């Protein structure tokens, strides 16, 4: 059975864009409006000859439960079935209260987490990513899921943990 890599994070941080980057094709639905991805979508992926199952998350509705609870709930389900977790944060926005809720949940899991500072489209934006050291998951990986910047380095680190 292939190991599972789960991609979690708030709506609109670029999870589905990162999925497409990893797959090398446009399969996950990317939307400017948050909340398009269905609850959980899985794909078969490969990097450096290693095959793994990729889980994209999202698709919660803004109901009475509130966005924090929804994101944390989805993230927890994905985290529970994952071998390795990619926690994606929007480096232009920084860590929000919703991100902090996910951080709390992730700390309770004894699973490897790689922190992705997404939307670092050029070198000037790398400083934004360094603030995310404070989340306690070690080195933030500066990535542009949209343009591919940093994605290969991230995937090298991912498959080393799978
Ligand atoms: P999700 O809700 O987390 O799955 O986010 P999506 O993948 O649907 O992306 C949300 C928006 O962010 C879309 O408009 C994407 O084009 C944009 N986006 C995703 N990754 C990047 C990135 O690396 N750089 C920039 N500038 N925009 C991005
Ligand atoms: Mg999505």
TrEMBL record:
This protein's name: GTPase Der
Domain of life of the source: Bacteria
Binding sites annotated in the UniProt record for GTP 1: 9-16, 56-60, 118-121
Family indicated by similarity: Belongs to the TRAFAC class TrmE-Era-EngA-EngB-Septin-like GTPase superfamily. EngA (Der) GTPase family.
Chain's role: GTPase that plays an essential role in the late steps of ribosome biogenesis.
Organism per entry: Paeniglutamicibacter gangotriensis Lz1y
Residue span, EngA-type G domain: 3-162
Quaternary structure, from the entry: Associates with the 50S ribosomal subunit.
